[in-house]
Fold this protein.
Amino acid sequence: MKKIAILILLLLTMLIPITAAANDFSSGIGRALSTLMGTGYVPACASSIASSMDKQLLELLGEDYTPKDLKIVLTVPVNINDFDKTNTLARQITEEIANKLKAKGYRVFEIRRAKEIEITPRKGEFLLSREQHKLFKTDLEIELVMTGTYTITSRSVRYNCRLLHTGSYEIIASGNGTVPVYPEIYPLLDEEPDKIIEPAPSVRTKL
């Protein structure tokens, strides 16, 4: 009986690491699926950038500071090797960051607002424009402007964004984030990564 009891204890001891590893694997898959199906890679990247900026602003301006004291305008990140190039994913990242900063209480301004609502038959009603002559122009006392760059590799798109003081070259706050490259995201890049990777059945969990 003693030998049987010892054998059972040995088997249980051997099973504990396997069970722990299985739990780690399950939790890892759960986190990956939560990121992919829940918050999403792009919102998670934008949240990381906005949170980093918010934290730095809080530390810099002190206890008397509140987010509503700052007026912010956002521009679109550009390719680090070509400042005349951007893409759909970069534009979406900017939209997400604007939402995150607004949710934190900052005064975020929309500079693409047109002078008038344009009503087009069978298309809709529009108030946003990128044509200079159509834009609504007014004097805004803006303290900060967000700008940034991105770098595309075969595995990810890395964003580096910063808030610049409008009256100088000074970077007041900055943040970065990464979006993994996978087949569904190719159309948003509007440009080819350094190397196209083959679709894989695994789920990437690194952001």
